[in-house]
């Protein structure tokens, strides 16, 4: 029997898929269930794709740190930044700039965390396929929920965020 403890509960059952590692690649190859290789085959809405280029695409993170957290991903299945060719590097940089502008316009982001985790030991959840994170930040966006309760409150559904950012994307 459950004893009342005067705590409210904020349930986030969608996070269980991430915690359990569901839909994670089974190996390091492109054909081993890599989501970054599968996403471009989907519609923008189903894949949460914000924008597509010739060498890279921008996609919302399915398990975001903040609303609007997206990633810039090369189509080509490579794990290292040093494996990208000049065209991929240039478009990755261009898409990162466009992501910053779109997030500022669509959500009034006041700052950003931008970066890559290269390799599992560096924190990459999917180390076999390079991806650059663009995480919008606002003053006070780290409050008691993530610090004390290890819970992030996201005020917008991913589909709505994708639509908003796709409309704000220029170029």
UniProtKB/TrEMBL annotation:
Short motif (Histidine triad motif): ranges: 129-133
SUPFAM superfamilies: HIT-like (SSF54197)
Pfam families: HIT
Keywords of this entry: Nucleotide-binding, Nucleotidyltransferase, Transferase
GO MF terms, alphabetically ordered: ATP:ADP adenylyltransferase activity; nucleotide binding
Binding sites annotated in the UniProt record for substrate: 61, 133
Superkingdom: Bacteria
Known EC number: 2.7.7.53
Primary enzyme class: transferase
Record protein name field: ATP adenylyltransferase
Species per Swiss-Prot/TrEMBL record: Nonomuraea soli
């Amino acid at each position: 029997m459950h004893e009342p403890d005067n705590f409210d509960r904020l349930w986030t059952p969608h996070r269980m898929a991430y915690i359990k590692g569901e839909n994670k690649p089974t190996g390091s190859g492109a054909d081993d269930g890599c989501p970054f290789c599968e996403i471009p085959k989907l519609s923008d809405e189903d894949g949460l794709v914000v924008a597509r280029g010739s060498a890279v695409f921008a996609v919302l993170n399915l398990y975001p740190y903040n609303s609007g957290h997206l990633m810039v991903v090369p189509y080509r299945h490579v794990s290292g930044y040093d494996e990208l060719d000049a065209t991929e590097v240039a478009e990755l940089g261009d898409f990162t700039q466009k992501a910053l502008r779109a997030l500022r316009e669509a959500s009034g982001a006041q700052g950003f965390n931008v970066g890559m985790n290269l390799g599992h030991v560096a924190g990459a959840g999917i180390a076999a396929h390079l991806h650059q994170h663009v995480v919008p930040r606002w003053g006070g966006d780290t409050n008691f929920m993530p610090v004390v309760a290890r819970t992030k409150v996201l005020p917008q559904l991913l589909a709505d965020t994708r639509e908003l950012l796709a409309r704000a994307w220029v170029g």
